[in-house]
Design goal:
Blueprint (H helix, E strand, L loop, with lengths): L24 E10 L2 E11 L4 E5 L6 H9 L6 E6 L2 E2 L3 H10 E4 L13 H11 L7 H11 L16 H13 L5 E5 L7 H18 L2 E5 L3 H7 L2 E6 L2 E7 H6 L4 H7 L33
Parallel strand pairs: 3-8, 3-9, 6-7, 7-8
Antiparallel strand pairs: 1-2, 1-4, 4-5, 9-10
Helix pairs in contact: 3-4, 3-5, 4-5, 5-6
The protein binds adenosine-5'-diphosphate and magnesium ion.
The site of magnesium ion has 2 residues, from helix 1.
């Protein structure tokens, strides 16, 4: 089914029977500078509960910076984040927000501490938020099962596992605190092509089961079409186009989006970045060139 036609997830509107509900997350005027370089320039973002917003843009456009700022790994120079209508400000509010937002990074080799067992990695957020203290092993088992790691021992070390399995562990960890929103920063782009579809299917399945909202950063336009309700196009730290996934991917309004759509992907998954081959005036690749067997 086309994402645009998909019914709004019931979880998205739980407790808001009438009237305009506040969006799950609303970021306004997010600005982040590195020295004199402005990586994010007054970015606005809105995510409804249970929905998927994708961020696309060439390499260096500020996608990961936005993810890191939203999840609190870096501090914005200015801007406001509201979650369920409440401004995220102050220690308590930040802590509650962190519990409600999970994050999955691009490289599952870098994002798991090799000295921890996979069970310890998954338990980390539980300990940080003092959750499931009386049944941590049970909760870890449940989370590993939920990501297709049934039968895998929690006391195994990550070096035994493939990239796809490690990413499953990272997803389990992101789900540990039972978040409402998961920020995924190119979660499949470091994986073998054959594994990418499995991880994407897992994320979609988890969304359906748990009513998750996703902020999904990707350079893969097939993925964008498949998973997104809305798309924000980022160019040098500014959102230049925003709209429904169908509109943005099929009838882009901005010249930059049209160039992104025409970008020729390289063969290697690691090189399949929208940004890399974006020479001005580069020829538009036929759609079939982007297709890869699952
Ligand atoms: P994307 O994820 O879209 O590829 P990033 O958010 O990683 O882009 O980076 C956006 C810009 O900010 C880039 O020009 C990058 O070099 C710069 N940048 C990112 N992180 C830092 C940092 N810690 N220090 C200085 N510059 C940074
Ligand atoms: Mg990035």
């Amino acid at each position: 089914m086309n994402r645009a036609e998909r019914p709004v997830n019931e979880a998205g509107h739980a407790g808001h029977a009438t009237g305009e509900a506040a969006p799950l997350l609303e970021a306004t005027g997010i600005t982040k500078r590195y020295g004199r370089y402005t990586a994010l320039d007054a970015v606005d973002l809105r995510i409804e509960a249970g929905r998927t917003v994708s961020i696309v843009g060439e390499s260096g456009s500020g996608k990961s910076t936005l993810a890191r700022v939203l999840v609190g790994l870096e501090r914005a120079d200015s801007g406001t984040v509201r979650f369920r209508g409440e401004t995220v400000r102050g220690r308590r509010a930040r802590r509650a927000f962190h519990r409600s937002v999970g994050m999955v990074f691009q490289d599952p080799y870098e994002s798991i501490d090799p000295r921890l067992t996979i069970g310890e990695a998954v338990a980390e957020p539980l300990r940080a938020h003092r959750l499931h203290r009386h049944d941590e092993p049970g909760r870890v088992r449940e989370l590993l099962d939920a990501v297709g790691m049934e039968g895998v021992e929690p006391d195994a070390y990550p070096h035994r596992f493939s990239g796809g399995q490690r990413q499953r562990v990272c997803i389990a960890r992101a789900l540990a605190t039972d978040p409402d929103l998961v920020i995924c920063d190119e979660p499949t782009s470091a994986l073998d092509v054959s594994v990418q579809a499995q991880i994407l299917n897992l994320l979609l399945d988890l969304q359906r089961r748990r009513g998750l909202a996703y902020l999904f950063i990707t350079h893969d336009l097939d993925v964008v079409r498949r998973i997104s309700d809305e798309v924000d196009v980022l160019l040098r730290g500014t959102v230049v186009e925003r709209g429904g996934a169908d509109q943005v991917t099929h009838r882009p309004r901005h010249e930059y989006t049209r160039r992104l759509l025409g970008a020729v992907p390289a063969v290697s998954p690691r090189e399949r970045r929208i940004g890399a081959p974006l020479a001005p005036g580069s020829p538009t690749a036929p759609k079939s060139a982007e297709q890869t067997p699952a």
